[in-house]
Each structure stands twice: as structure tokens, then as C-alpha cells.
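Each lists chain and fold; for instance:
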Amino acid sequence: MPVSEEIKSFMKDNPDIEVVEVLIADINGIFRGKQMPASGLKKLAKNGVPFPITTTFLTTNGSNAEYTLDEYGSDPDRICMPVPGTLKRVPWATRPTAQIQVTMLNSDGTPFFMDPRAVLQRVLARYAEKGLRPVIALEYEFFLFDRGTIPPVPVSPPNGMAAASGANCYNMDVYYDFEGLMQEIENDCRAQGLDVIGLVCEYGNGQFEVNLQHTSNVEKACDDALLLKRAVKAVALKHGLLASFMAKPIFDEVGNGLHAHVSVLDEEGNNIFAGEDGEELLKHAVGGLLRTMPQATAFFAPNANSYRRFDPDWFAPVVPNWGENNRRLSVRLPLSDEVNRRFEHRVCGADVCPHLVVAAILAGAFHGLRDETDPGEPLGEFDLVDFDGVLPPRWRIALDVLEKSKIMRRYLGDDFVDLYLQVRRSEEEEFHRQISTADYEQYLRII
């Protein structure tokens, strides 16, 4: 359905809508945007809306990166056009509000190279050329904290029960302590068309996991992932809580991960990983993932805190390895029948941009399929990990590896990788210059 018809139908069904939030995803997995009267929707469908060109590649805190100012300091506007199917009601808003996503275009109408959606489209085009269609499902972990506490304090049950501190993985009693909040999250997600198929208590104190249904509409899966985070944070805030997808919010707890389950369909809709021949293709895809994992780490761990999560004592994968049904591994092959044969990519933190990490994952898998890459020997269900050849353990190292990469550049584009590095290097250096509380605790009196 054309966006103009979609808007007409939506306003007929929602005549009370007063304002619309216009949202665009940036390389940090954060929605930037502006609010406009509902009457502006028709004009938006026809003419789009201008956003500064740097909107898609701001630093995490919303600044223009220092290293980009020479080329992009004048910050001209670019037109952003609405994405079909993204006009939704905002159920948690205090006034009748809708939201719509937009994508940035160049002056000639082609996709802007730094828009995360455009990066993902480049990789998906490779699959389409071969008659292939990826299927993906994303799982997010997040913590609930008391609002306004630094360091953050895990939430206490709102029903007055004593907090069950420590690991409470899959504890249904703890889940039901927060049943009202979880039900509201699920209801608001479904009201926005997000297919939530699971909410569980996770391993950390105050940690939960939410799962989205698998789909072959990969762009929508990534859009939905960002909308999911937005809904969780908004509903938690209504309840006076902070929901955080920070990779490592507490030093002596597990971190928050983003796990991606991926299979690939052929032109007839059959899973290419099924059957004996499919097992060989699956191994090749895994081989490509392992080969490209170090150079893609800068996408899987996009900020300073991301690298604090890389702690093997807390189940975070730190070595490019693979095997059946082993959660210590970077690439796990879950229990499944032939129809659902897939790999699970477990490296990313929950702080990533889903469009970029999915693009990097799919690029690695495609490269492995193309080159018939050997993944090496798998580890067994109960095997421990040998910590040789670990992934880049610090932010600057990961950026250096990405800069020298060939495969990521080939699939994501030199123009994108170079500007991404400029933004991240500016952010890394700014963070490194900060003087933390730990500096004072360790050195102020002693030295």
C-alpha cells in the first residue's frame, strides 16, 4: 500500500491523533526524531521531512563527531521519506500520538550511505541476487533498575515481596513479581505490531529477556528491535523504573546480550541448512562468521562499555568458535528440526544498532557460503573454551582491526566503514580523556 493510502486509512481509524513522532535510526541504534502535528502527515508522504545530514552518524550522546567536522561541519539537510508499514499508534503516550519511521536519501533520491537501513539493504541485495532470503529472530536482554540510582540498583518487586537477589534464571515466582509490568510491555508491543513470543527472567538480578518472532522481512525485524527497546523503556518509565539495554551496567553481574537466530531460504522457501547437503552449507556460513568476527567486533561492541561485557566468567563469548547446543560459544547451533535448522550468533551486546550487526552477521555468513569456508572442528555440548585467539578486547583495538578489514568493507562499503571509524574514533578518544571516579579512588591519594 502506498504511504499516502496508509496514512489516509490510519487517520480514518485513529481520528483523535494530535501529533506524530517522526523517527530515524542512527548508527548507535537510537531513534532521533522530531514531533509534528498530525495534519503534517499528508505533506510528509509527498515531500518527506528534512533532517541534518549528520543525524544518522552522531555519537552515542548525540554530538557531531570531532573527526567529521571538516567534511560535514556545515551539516546540510537531507530529505527523509517515510518507510511503508511503520505508521503506528504510541500506546504509552499521554496525548493521542502516532509514530512513523523515515529513511534518509541523497539529493538524487538514492539511499544515503550512512543510514543503517541502507547498509543492511546492500547486504540483503547480495542474497537476493542468488535467490536467497535470510530469516532472522532477535532476542534482547535488559535490566530493570530503580530510577535515578548511580550506580544502578536492581529493582525491588512492586508487590512488596523481598527482592530475590542473585541469579534467578527462569524463576517464575520472580517473573510474577513483575507480571503487571511484563504484561503491559507485551500489550504495548503487540499494539505496535511487534510479535513478542517470550518474556523470561534472565540470569542477572533484575534482568529479563524478550524474544521476537522469526521473520524473512529482515529490515522490519531490525526496525521492530528498536521499537521493542523503545516500548520496554517507555513502559518501565511509566512505572517509575529505568529499563537499560547497556551491555554491562553492573560490574559483578552478567551483561545484556543481543542474540540473533539466522537461517536462509531458497527461492522455493526451503531452508538451505536442512538435510545432509544443508549441513555443509551451514558449516560454510559458520566458517564465514568466524573468519569475519574480529573485523566486525566494532559493530558487535560499539562503545566503551561494550567491552566490559566481554568477560568469559559471565557467559559472554570472547573467542570465534562454534558448536552444537553450547551457550559458551560465539556461534551456537540450537536444538532444532530440519525445517528450523539455524545458527545463533551470541557475540553482540544489547547496546548495538540492530541494522548494522545484522548486516555484519549476514555479510559474514554470505562470505562463508560463497567461499565454502571451513569453520574448523566444533566444540561439544559440555566442552570448555580455549581462550586462544580472542576477539579484540578493547575498543581501540577493534577499530584498528575494522580499519584493516577487507571483507566488511567489501560488503558494507568503504564509504560507510571509513565514516563509521571517524565517528567511533572521535567518541573513543573523548571517552579516554574523561577522568572517572575510579581514577580518583585508585590514584588521588596514593600518588
Remarks:
- The chain has two domains: 3-112, 123-438.
- The radius of gyration is 22 Å.
- Residues 123-438 form a domain with the Creatine Kinase; Chain A, domain 2 fold (CATH 3.30.590.10).
